[in-house]
Amino acid sequence: MAKLPVNDTLANLLVNVIKVMPMAQRELVAKDILSVFSTFISAWSTSQPAIKSAELRQLLDITFLGELYDKQAKVSALPPILRQAKALSEILHLLTPQGPNALLLAFHRLVSEAIATAEARNTLRYAYLFVLARTPTISPAILFDAAAAFSGSRRKLKHLTGVETSSLLLTQWASRGYLDNSEEIYRVYRRHRGKRDEAALASLCLALFSRGNPEKRKGLYRGVWRFLITIDQKNDMLRSLKFDMETGQERYEGIQKKAAVHKKHQKGRTQSQPEPPKPTLPVRMLEDLAFTSDDWHIAIQLHDLWNRHNKAHTQPSFFPGVFEKYTESIIHDPNLPTSTIWRTLDITKHFDSRKTSYNRKLRPHQTSPFTARRAALVERASRAFATAPHLRNRVALRHVYRSVSLLKAIRADKQVPAAVIEDLYRLVTSDLWKEKPGRTKRLLLWVKLVEDQHGLEAAWRCRMALREWRSR
User: Fold this and answer.
1) What is the structure's pLDDT at 277?
2) HSE toward the beta carbon, residue 157, CA cutoff 13 A
3) Most buried of 8, 55, 72, 395 (most Cβ within 10 A)?
4) pLDDT class for 396, splitting at 50, 70, 90?
5) Buried b (16+ CB within 10 A) or exposed e, 201-238
6) Are residues 221 and 295 in contact, defined by beta-carbon separation less than 8 angstroms?
7) How far is Cα 288 from Cα 389, in angstroms, rounded to an integer?
8) How many Å apart are CA 395 and CA 324, to the nearest integer?
9) What mean pLDDT value characterizes the chain?
């Protein structure tokens, strides 16, 4: 078979032969199958036209919507390399029923050697990754590692496009049964500008959010992030989301202007144009992406992206609980401004406005549905500031005392947790532990807090104890 010309006939013949072959004999012909694979790889390595986004969309149409079309006609319209890759994925599935084996490793080695000298290395890479994605016995980790092995400038390969990345993920999810309603998810992806490379990843996430199983959604989002991080393209997701939100806003404003002109000319008529729906990505989807990224830099960028879009505060606020697991990392990151945590918790939007009175600054936090969660995060931030190794004592003290002010303001009982009082105590007495007199103003600040929280008698005892300590 290895001496036959490489075409669809050879690929389909090989599929049919292996299907009727007993399982015990399939292992015996593995070397012969590998030689046939080598001929296909050699053919794919020669001058091949680049795979277009329209052809990838057609390939996904066959996978998810094949029953609605003349499937054979659609398959014949695909480029030969994609038709043959479909057949090779069936062969690989038949020969690896228990998962990866020596045949898969040898197949990967052949592709790795061919890509080094191939003319159409980008096309060959996608065809190989598509074979892996379409094979049900190949796990996501193997696909991601294979994609990482064929990425980077050292191999003179371009980055995977948004459409290529989305198509590989959708194909693997469908082959492994990760999608409960795959047809509906794909329809949303296709309808929401999935054909545009800039918006493909945003369309993929929106499709999972609007039609995917809520119990599986976060796991799939983690898979998307793992894939993008493995191939060093996590910024592609941020660019795609930004592009989708900005172009959607521009399109909406353009429709509004046309509607205003139409209304002006149709003033005397009763019929009016309906208000167009404002296109935007849901904030809850961005929150899920921020949480599943496991990267506080990405979470901050997604939060800022939403706030730039929601300047008029007509949409829901970003849920502060997303940053619960990132609080310490954000504060202990020396490359970030110390005020970043307050911005991510949406506290500076009200507290840093000098044009409003103090009570008006507090009101949004007192009435917010996220008040309890925000208070818990402020307490956590206080501990992180008190233990941050790179912060000077004065800076840490300022932020811990700000935590005290915030907690007194937004908690209904006006109580400051004992842990926060202890954090402030460690900072104001740091000089005393070094046998220095310390700063009187800072010590009195802590004594005043004890008086507010525990009464005059407790504050007096603390004051006497501090005076005795300083006099030693």
Assistant:
1) 45
2) 25
3) 55
4) very high
5) bbbbbbbbbebbeeeebeebbbbbbbbbbbbebbebbb
6) no
7) 31
8) 22
9) 84
Q: pLDDT band at 413, cuts 50/70/90?
A: confident
Q: What is the C-alpha to C-alpha distance for residues 354 and 347, in angstroms, rounded to an integer?
A: 14
- Residue 80: which of 31, 46, 112, 32 has the closest Cα? 46
Between CA 407 and CA 415 the distance in angstroms is 7
Locate 327 and state its tokens. Answer: 């609080």
Distances from the Cα of 25 to the Cαs of 14, 32, 43, in angstroms? Answer: 14, 12, 28
3-state secondary structure of 34: helix
pLDDT tier, 201 (very low <50, low <70, confident <90, very high otherwise): very high
- Do residues 65 and 137 touch, judged by C-beta distance below 8 A? no
Residue 416 has pLDDT above 60, yes or no: yes
Residue with tokens 């879009």: 309
Q: What pLDDT was estimated at residue 355?
A: 44
pLDDT digits (tens, 9 = 90+) for 239-297: 999 998 888 655 545 545 555 555 555 654 545 554 444 557 899 999 999 999 999 99
What would the pLDDT profile of 82-119 be if each residue is shown by its tens digit?
999 999 999 999 888 887 888 899 999 999 999 888 88
- Cβ atoms 375, 410 nearer than 8 A: yes
Q: Which residues contact 89 (CB under 8 A, 6 or more apart)?
A: 130, 131, 132, 134, 135
- Whole-structure pTM value: 0.85
By CB atoms closer than 10 A (0-12, 13-18, 19+), residue 240 is buried
Query: What CA–CA distance (Å, rounded) separates 287 from 359?
Result: 30
CB 414 within 8 A of CB 408: yes
Determine the straight-line distance between the first and last CA of the chain, rounded to whole angstroms.
94
In this prediction, residue 219 carries a pLDDT of: 94
Q: How far apart are CA 296 and CA 290, in angstroms?
A: 8
Q: How far apart are CA 247 and CA 252, in angstroms?
A: 9
H or E segment to which residue 42 belongs: helix 30-45
Query: Which residues 6+ apart lie within 8 Å of 303 measured at CB?
Result: 286, 290, 318, 322, 323, 344
CA angle 362, 368, 370 (to 5 degrees): 120
Residue 314 in tokens: 């007509």
Identify the pLDDT of residue 438: 81
Structure tokens at 171: 């194909």
What's the confidence (pLDDT) of residue 1?
53
SS3 of residue 385 by DSSP: helix
Nearest-CA neighbor of 109 among 149, 157, 138, 154? 149
Check: CB of residue 170 under 8 Å from CB of residue 184. Answer: no
**The two three-digit tokens of residue 39, written as one number:** 């001929």
Token representation of residue 398? 């300022």
